[in-house]
Amino acid sequence: MTDKLQVQRTALGRYKSYPSYKDSGVEWLGEIPAYWQFMPLKHLCKRSGLYGANEPAEAYIEEGVRFLRTTDISDKGGLVRDGVYLSFETVSDYILQTGDLLFSRSGTIGRSFLYDQVRHGLCAYAGYLVRFVPGPEFFPLFGFYFTKSLQFEHWATTSEISSTNGNVNAQKYANMPCPKPPLAEQKAISAFLDRETAKIDSLIDKNERLIELLQEKRKALITQAVTKGLNPNVPTKDSGVEWLGKIPAHWEVKQLRHVGIAIIGLTYEPADVVGPDEGVLVLRASNIYDGHIVLEDNVFVKRSIPNRLNTKVGDILICARSGSRALIGKSAMIDKALVGLTFGTFMMVFRSTCNDYLFYAFNSTLFSYQSGAFLTSTINQLTLSNLNSFTVPVPPHDERAAIAAFLDRETAKIDSLVAKIHEAIDRLKEYRNTLISAAVTGRIDVREAQ
Fold first, then answer.
1. What's residue 271's pLDDT?
2. Alpha-carbon distance 280 to 304, whole Å?
3. Counting CB atoms within 10 angstroms of each CB, which of 240, 270, 306, 314 has the fewest?
């Protein structure tokens, strides 16, 4: 916490401090303005620590009262679009009122939500959420902003660690110390944070949209190169494939089965999983991120790995099956640092003598179009047969190399720009968190801030 608070003071130097402070007596809360109070959350509420309803999925109906679960609440404290519903009679004792605060007590510990009937419609809440009804001297929005602070994050993390079952129950939430400025000041701080976080969120949204546009440009650039080549004046011919259209006259059109070999990954049991010093790393869908392989959340297996299932330089690793449809068809290339690993049963690799070029074909609209044709509401995977039947335009060897070199260079420029924008977004999110943390604990005085 000390390092993060120092960042606060540096980042928020343009805001003034309060005239004097006192020790709150709570290590993670630190000093607060001298005239502020702090007290357990339950003393700030009319009703405290109320558990939600436990209703099975079989009871859900198409329309009715929205039934809020921990998975319906986003990290920022909003509601996801799609929800589930129950009859009013089923949840009549759990209907929320505007201003109610909800906390997640299991799974996503500390996730919070401020209910507003006008914005959210009629809602009830589920058993893994805990409800608090703020009293007249505790402004609900101020309480919600406190739950987005570094101090609250620290409290929730340490409370979860100290719990024997990883569950922060209603009693713990009820006894959590909270700062309590005068009511008018709570409202002023909340209004300031509404205004300033809206500006930050707008900048984040614009940057995220810019990333989307750059990624669209990247895919369009790749698709143009792997379907039309680099020479805009080259003679063309009909490819014979309706959705592919015309291609350079000297190119061929082939199915992947005639270009290389696709291999299904390793099947292993939970008993095969071992520590990192004892086995071979298994590449899975979660290791593919933006066309690259990221070695996080790794799994290792201890067993004899057939040579064909050991990764080789130039292998294209493809996600064939995943709980997330968005991951299916995602691919990345194996480089020297990743040789000798293996890949799981929901993965495939494709091997050929022209993978430098094919890697880009796999990252074009050609591949996403064809892979999407095999995904339905009941089938969420690519099979070996599916992949082998995919159609690709194939230039001569020298031209394949030139296209791959061109795309290496041009996509690297886009990727570098995207990485810088991601860094900017991370800094904005960090500043947002810092600003909230400093305002709700009195490290900065924002009552008159413009």
1. 87
2. 9
3. 270
Predicted confidence (pLDDT) per residue in 160-185, tens digit? 766 656 678 899 999 999 999 999 99
Q: Determine the angle formed by the axes of helices 183-228 and 397-440, rounding to 10 degrees.
A: 180
The beta strands (E) that lie in 24-91 are given as 31-33, 37-40, 45-51, 65-68, 84-86
Residue 143 main-chain phi, psi, to 5 deg: -60, -40
Q: What are the chain's domains?
A: 37-180 (3.90.220.20), 252-394 (3.90.220.20)
Which residues have CB under 8 Å from 101's CB, separation 6+? 112, 113, 114, 115, 131, 132, 133, 134, 140, 143, 144, 147
**Residue 428: its H or E element:** helix 397-440
pLDDT of residue 182: 97
* Pairing of the two strands 101-104 and 112-114: antiparallel
Biggest alpha carbon distance in the chain? 81
Q: How high is the pLDDT of residue 325?
A: 63
Q: Let me know: does 285 contact 347? Beta carbons within 8 Å.
A: yes
State the Cα–Cα distance between residues 126 and 393, nearest whole angstrom: 53
Q: Which of 142, 91, 88, 84 is nearest to 112 (CA)?
A: 142
Which tokens go with 163? 């719990």
- Residue 368 has phi, psi (to 5 degrees) of -65, -35
